[in-house]
Amino acid sequence: MSPPPTASALREQQAYVAAQAADARVNVELDTGDMTLNIGPQHPATHGTLRIACQLDGEQVISAEPLMGYMHRGYEKLCEVRTYPQCTTLINRIDWLGSFANEVPFILAAEQLMGVEAPPRAQWIRTILFELSRIANVSLFLGDMGVQVGALTPVFFAFRDRERVLNQIEEVTGGRFHPNFDRIGGLKDDIPRGWIAETHAVMAKMRGFCDEMEDLLMGNEIFQTRCRSVGVIPGDVALSYGLSGANLRASGVDWDLRRDANPGLAWDQVDWRVWTHPDGDSFARYWVRLQETREATKIVDQLLDGIPSGPIMAKVPRIIKVPAGEAYVSTENPLGEMGYYVVSKGGLGPFRVKIRTPSFSNISVVPWVMRGTYVPDIITILGSLYFILGDIDR
Amino acid sequence: MSAAADLTGALGLAYWAETAIKLGVALIVIPTAALMLGYLFLLKMMAFMQSRLGPTDVGPHGSLQLIADAVKFLQKEDIHPAAADRRVFRAAPVVVLASSFLLFVVLPTGPDAVVENLDTGIFYAMAVSSLSVLGVLMAGWASANKYALLGGLRAAGQLIAYELPLILAVMGVVIQADSLNLQEIVRAQAEGEIFGFGLIGNPFILTQFIGFLIFMIAAQAELTQTPFDMPVAETELVGGFHVEYTGFRFLLFFMAEVATAFAFSALATVMFLGGWWIPGFDFNAPILNVLGPVVMLAKILLVAFVIFWIRFTYPRLREDQLQKFAWKVLIPLSLANIVVTGIFKVVL
Amino acid sequence: MADDTGDEQSDDQAGDEAREALAAELSELLGDAVVESHVEAGQNLWLRIDIEQWHAAMAALRDAGFAYFGFLSAIDWTDAPEGRYEDTEFDAAGVGEDDDASSATAEETVRRGGGETRFQLLAQLHSPARHAAVLIKADVPPADGAPASVPSIIDVFAGADWHEREAHEMFGLVFDGHPNLEHIYLPTEFEGHPLRKDFPLLARAVKPWPGVVDIEEIPPELEAQLEAEVMAEFEASGAGA
Fold first, then answer.
1. Whose CB among A312, A334, B245, C88 lies 3.0–4.6 Å from B250's, allowing a Cys bridge?
2. So what's the pLDDT on residue A297?
3. What is the predicted ipTM?
4. Average pLDDT, stretch B131-138?
5. Considering the domain boundaries, does residue B1 fall inside one?
6. How does B59-83 read in b/e, with b if 16+ C-beta sit within 10 Å?
7. Interchain CB distance below 8 Å, B150 and A223
8. Which residue of B has its CA nearest to A215?
């Protein structure tokens, strides 16, 4: 379970770079022409409407520039004309695979401004639901990465097992994808009876799913050939592009907001660890996400056993008015650091909301990392960076 | 050389009647084969492996789903891109399908049940199977689409990488059977014996096991099945060479793909699994003209199962990785196989 | 209303002390570039940087370990001409007391780290090694008619590229030294800068803002009564405190 040795990966990478340099020389000598290839906006690998304009020399990428905005919904502007509770409805739709996790930082920011703190029970249930959305979100990635490299089967397993997690989220919140369950000062409802035992069972299933993915996909020779040394992002580059989440940890940077900047949720109450991988390639990103999904199931298991009793709502007025001020809260969402900079001038709604979405920064590294790779690698790298289009375009 | 008389010749039919029957059989067998494999493996087995249900509504257990699909395809408008080279665009699926039609000609399914018992059967089969790449290249070029072009080029680039091991793997069988004639290869397996033990004959999978493995790997590439489906590559090239095809032209590609899988399974059966012969029967027993096709079909399904099983399990290689694999592993291995087979042939 | 336990308070205090120390350290590091620093108890640390030294300060912060680029954006501090509260009776009645104070005095209490200009740049940097984050602001000098111009930092943080393009199209700020300052979300031919407060939000102009429908239903007396009931029930259940 320890990270594989890096020396061989580094050698492979050097050989790869050298081979590409040799290729480039041949191409200069033969003076082959370039071809522009538009990947997207409608392309199965872009999970939506991302477009990547590639300059190709044969199958080798000279430059790749992501062009987005096909799904820009202007949430920052729309939030300015909504009340705080209404904003969560929009915010649910940013990262639509891990919606509950989207709500949390916004609600926390509003709570900071109001000086309200949710009771411990609410914080624990928030944390559980947060981790459940992480599992639902990342487990889809674990299967989808197979599709990106050509194996069709894993994604169906992922859809099958993700359903169990979604059912658990639905039982509490009433919504599978857009729970809209988090409230300023706590939660809308308590968890239903019998839910804890069910969730324990689901977590055991999800660990089984992780094992299955490890056997079926991660251990596969072809998968490793396709992913190792592809799309290597060193730690300093990852930092300067603002990569976050598993992408950053796969580049060897030990940085997890759950541990390092916990905004009051229950992560510090349980025993878990942050996984990092030194390689920074597509395989490392897959590896880190797989470990994190396992870790998340353990976090949920521990939290389920220790939910404190008490109310789930703090005393807040029925009509939420937030005092003037500014607050920034970010949390470690399934995709990375998601933060909300909320400016209030007092009143029912925010004056300005800056939404820092992880995928936007994660994808900004694409032009850097794509140079010199091959067309199939574009898909591998895009898949391994793992973005949700709503999270880029907001 | 040709010991087995033609089935139709034995019945004493006129030339035109004989030809008509052969044509009719071919026209029925190929779509049936495509439908059967498509339903059994592409729909039902794939769904089972992926914990889905697959088709359930059309016919018993959804068995008529592909016919419904075919009807749907036939109803669709025949579109071609404005910039396409229309003649080539239209011809391409026909070329691909023709390649798999021609393959069926030489496949023996009984002592007399063969459309045309060519003396150079295996040579002919290898030759016509490579024709399909021509069609793929035509489709890729004529579509006036960059994805299609990349797919076509990949198919062409892939050709040598797997065609060579494919033929070299067959060489071992040919050496051992002393013949290029597929009927003779079946006979060699039926009448051969391993160290004096001749009850089940000598299916070449036992003595040519490496050849069989190489043949199956290369066939996987020939059929553009995962892990060698780079010319199609749904998630990269969104279908590659057939990205612009709709309606019945796409249906032709689809049929050709599955029918070729069937034909290659049949080739593997004939060359490595003892073909249509049943242990205990005389090689020329007329009853084998009836039982042979059944045995063949069972073996074909077994081989096709493996082909599709691998397809649903593995990720896709990259083009350069395939080349590396073919030139550094498959070709040296198959050459060594030929050398070893030759030595044994001379010594024994 | 916070349910603070002793531990959490001491945690918060420790955090605040660390923030104060960090603020002092960074002020020393950056020298006169820091116009003002602000620590909000239990929350965040803000630094307001002189816009002239924006680039140098960012580079200095990066070299000081704040290497993780969080985000870069801007804030438009003017009140929207179409307003958000003026349109409906409910808005005028419900929020009046908050908004009666003139915007100038209100803003002084709002703005963390101070500043008076209409536009402020806003960025965030993390230090993975020190487990600390800092929010950085800079006043964008007003430029009549012409788009306000600020230095680009893409040579310091490569990731700032897209964030600056976004701030450019949304606020009309011009980042000097940015090689490719084009629209990132909006169509190339789009006119206007949507996140400026004077950019009309058509949906808002066509129908009253969405909050009305939800909240207007409850008359004020009933509202007060409901709230009292809920609170009483809440306290009776042993919650709170």
1. B245
2. 92
3. 0.81
4. 86
5. no
6. eeebbbbbeebbeebeeeeeebeee
7. no
8. B313
